[in-house]
Each structure stands twice: as structure tokens, then as C-alpha cells.
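Exercise 3.2. Students should predict the tertiary structure of the chain below and write it as C-alpha cells, then compare their answer with the key that follows.

Predict this chain's 3D structure.
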Amino acid sequence: MTLKQQMRFWAIALVAFILFLILLSDILLPFVLGMAVAYFLDPVADRLENAGLSRTAATALIIGLFLIFVNLALIIFVPIMIDQILGLMNHMPGYYENIRSFLMPFIDRFIDVPDWQQNAQFNETVGQYIGELMKKLAALSENIVGGGLAVVNMIMLLVISPVVAFYLLRDWDRIVERIDSWLPKKNAEQIRKLARKIDDVLAGFVRGQSTVCLLLAVYYGVALMFTGLEFGFVIGVVTGLISFIPFVGAIIGFIASAGVALVQFWPDYILIGVVIGIFIVGQILEGYVLVPNLVGEKVGLHPVWVMFGLLAGGSLFGFVGVLIAVPMAAVIGVLSRFAIDQYLQSPLYSAPPPTPTNPDDKSES
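Answer key:
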């Protein structure tokens, strides 16, 4: 097969894969989640298998414990989160009045207008921001529901994902061996090398960062709840879970918790400082303890590239796109670095060799 034929083959395969994602994105969520769970738990299955358990027994034990853990987390945490979300909705009018009362003295120092006009301008401005926020939240909810979290698809998610995870985890090594046997003989070793690099990146980011997010969610949620901060648990859990988006989770969580602390605790500077200190400690733990030990420093995924991948995946394929964004970003990153290395070693980059001088020319001169 010539180079041109190879490029045509891979181009057709890429287009077919993209069409597959677009046409079947509404039903892919349970399978993507099942595959993610199987990939995440494969090292545990390998260790149990090395300890003497059969692959089937190890898989059944792991999936069973995983489902028990997930169900316990749902039973314990979901009621708390629902209660706090409902409480947040009930407290919104009070927060609005507190924010207005807090900001009006600062507005009076710089703008000399009648009180009735101040109130009208403030109400109009806040109303516009709230209206825009509600529109964005409605659009986000619509995208999430359309992307696979409707009632029927939720049932499919809860039923099909564990089954998919079980069979994939049980047959993971055989699937890898079968795919390895399909590799073109000429480039098999090079493809295996690239696959190992991709697996290193995914293992470092997906497995490591998922563990970091769960630990941060527990830390922020419990710590903010013990301070007495209203809705601290839900703010902390959301902050931890979205920490896989570099800097975004910490910034959103800090702004939300600091804002609620100012409204709730003002002028108690100690409690406000404690809330701020929780995020400072959380960032120290994330940056100097959790990420270096669980994610590692050789992931090679730049934060900007991760954010771009998440936004692009969500825009193209909805919620499924968000789930596959980081793996695809890792694959594209490894392949891009490989392509750059090939270019730097090719004649396209190298300077042309110097033209040899003719000895006869020197003798004539």
C-alpha cells in the first residue's frame, strides 16, 4: 500500500468515526461511561489476577464493590445536595437584598443620585444579569438533557453502563491482544510505542485527575459544611468535581463560597478568613501533594489544550463529547508531538547539505 493509499484509508476512517459520534451520540453515553469505568479499574483487576483470582472473579468483585460505593455515595450525598439546592433557591431573594444593601454604600460614595433612581438602576442591572444567567442555565440544561440525561436514557445509563463495564473489564486484555494482532506488520512496533505513550497520558490524567477531583470534592464539601457556610457542601462538591478543568473549578468555588460567606458572616472576619483559608489549603494540597503523586508531571496536557478540548467536545457532541474530550485531546497531543518529531528529522526541516566544491575550479583560478 502506497503512502497516498494509506493517507486515504486513515482519512476515510477518521471521517467514519466522526460521523459515528454525530449520528449515535444520543445513545453512546452508557457505553462511553462503561468503557471509562473499565479502563479506570483495569489496573486493579490486573493486580487481583496476579494475586490468584480468575479474571471473571476479579471483575465481578471490582464491579460489585464499585456499584456499592456509588450507591452509598448517592444515598448519602444526593439528599444533602438536593436539600441545599432547594434551600439556595429559597434564599435567593434574601441574598439579593443583602447584596443590594452591601453595595449601596459603596455606590453612594461615587454616584450622587436619588435613592429611588439608585434602586431602579440596581434592580434593572441585576435583573438583566439574572435574566442572562437563567437563559444560559436553561440552554445548558437543554443540552445536557438532549445529550443523554433524559429519564429514559438515565434508566439506560444505570442498567447498561455496569453491564458494559463488566464485560469490557473481563475481556480487556483479550481485546487489547486482538487489536494488537490487527496492526500493520511494518509499523506495528511504532504504533505500540505511540499507544504506550497515549496510555501513559490517559492513565496519568484520567485515572489520576479523577481521584484528585473526588478527594477535593470530599475535602471542600466537608470543610465548608463544618464552617456553617450555607450551601457549603454543594459548593464544595461542585468545586471538587469540576477541578479537572484547570483553574476553573477553584475560581468558581472560591467566588461562590466567598460571596456567600460575605453575605452570611459579615462582619465576622474570622469565619470569612476561614472560608478563604480552606481554598488556600485546598490549592496547596492539589498543587503540591495530590497532583504530583496521583497525576504526575509527565502527562503533557497543557491546561489551555484541556479547556479547548472540553469546550470543543461539548459543542460538537454534547455531554458525550465532554466525556471523550480529554482522551481525544491526549491522543491528538501524542500524535501531534510524534508528527513534529518526524518533521524535525525530515529533509523538510534540515538544511540542505553544502554543495561540494570542484577541485578543478580552484586549479583554474
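Discussion points: The chain has three domains: 21-182, 202-299, 300-345. The radius of gyration is 27 Å.
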